[in-house]
Amino acid sequence: MRKIITTWLREPLVQFIALGVALFALYGIFGGGSPDAGADKRVDVTQAEIGWLAERWTRQWQRPPTETELRGLVDGYVREEILYREALAMGLDRDDAVVRRRMVQKLELLTEAVLAPPTEEQLRAYFQENLDRYRIPERRSFSHIYFNADQRGDAVFAAAERVLEQLGATPQPVTRAPERGDRFLLQYDYRLHTQAEVGRLFGSRFAEALFEVDRESWQGPIQSGYGLHLVYVSGVSPEAVPDFEAVRNRVLVDYETRQRQEIKEALYRSLSSGYEVVIDEEAIRAAALQPGSSGEGR
Fold this sequence. Notes:
The chain is of the alpha+beta class. It contains 13 helices and four strands.
């Protein structure tokens, strides 16, 4: 029975209902009345508030406050409460982007309070559904010979082809020969790099070609932003799916992030269903940057 109840409590719909109840309760406590109502002119500093002030002090200073210090905290709390209420009464919270964003963030943070930790089964299921996110990409080790197109001009292709033919005719395998080409500012040898890493160094076209050529033989020429290259792939670490335990923490973070996004979206859909949204489409068209416009003068 306990297992059934625990599983039921972990369901997103149940969690969302719990969030709705919590929001309704909070609205009942804090949302009623207006700043001008008599009840809002009274500040009650209860045992709960005093305990919270004392606890916050203790966490910061690693000791309980003295009576004098605690009275000072209470005075500060009362001062802040009065000024806050008067600011609300004056409407100072309106038309303030910072205040708006902060209040939206606080409302969305309430959703996290109803999220239960995922079960092992839920985590493993999420892992299987999103294997591509955790897949270990193929890595390649390679050496290259560089040919400077700026210096060689139109003869650069012929030079690269000539060296490639020479390497293929050698009786003993040659795995690296940077001296047969031109000087290169970066390295000549790279160990177990992903296609993305190679792309950041040589460009995406070079990286795509490198990950298609055969290994343990000179291939090319391949063009990069620097010029031409002959490449020798000496090793390949194939693409693989990691063991679940090796990426468990990452899966947990991703799962909880998705859960928060889903429940926030459910909250917004629920709240927005009670609103009528009217958008001035003509104003959007007039204010938007038109296609082909340079944007000057805006």
